Amino acid sequence: MTRGQRHEAELVAGRAERVWKANADTVASQIYGAHFEDLARQWCFEHASPDTLGGVASTVRPTELPCREHRRRHELDVVVTESVSFAADRIIAIGEAKGTEAPVDVAQLERLEHLRGLLPSGKVGALPKLLLFGRSGFSSALARLADRRPDVELVDLGRLYGGA
Predict the structure, then answer these.
(1) What is this structure's pTM?
(2) Fewer CB within 10 Å, N side or C side of the chain?
(3) Where does the pLDDT of residue 139 fall: very low under 50, low under 70, confident under 90, or very high at 90 and above?
(4) 140-147 and 106-118 are packed helices; what angle lies between their axes, rounded to 10 degrees?
């Protein structure tokens, strides 16, 4: 059974609004999510300040990191690298972009901390900053935690579209 067929009976019965509402996060992550990730990368490269990133972005890309603990690869939406003359490139920030309707919570920060620990040590100078991009903002617990951490930056839609 394909995804479309899974909800066919409900759609035929006139329950389209309920089907769309129940699948809003899936639509957001699968369709809007990729675009939101692109916006986050573009923002890092074109608009984010050196204070926000911990340096100047030379490249911004997604990547995957192998993880022995989880025995799989983890996707990382944003990897910001700085190139400096006569020195090796270094990763200055990593980030996660969430285009879902739910606010980003502390669990996503914990995931980023785990991924920061998986980065190749030769490419990391100081600890890279942790960037969280949230289409629907951030939980109050995450906002309180980020306020106390100079290595964490929260980027909501207002900041994404209006500031560094």
Answers:
(1) 0.83
(2) N
(3) very high
(4) 50
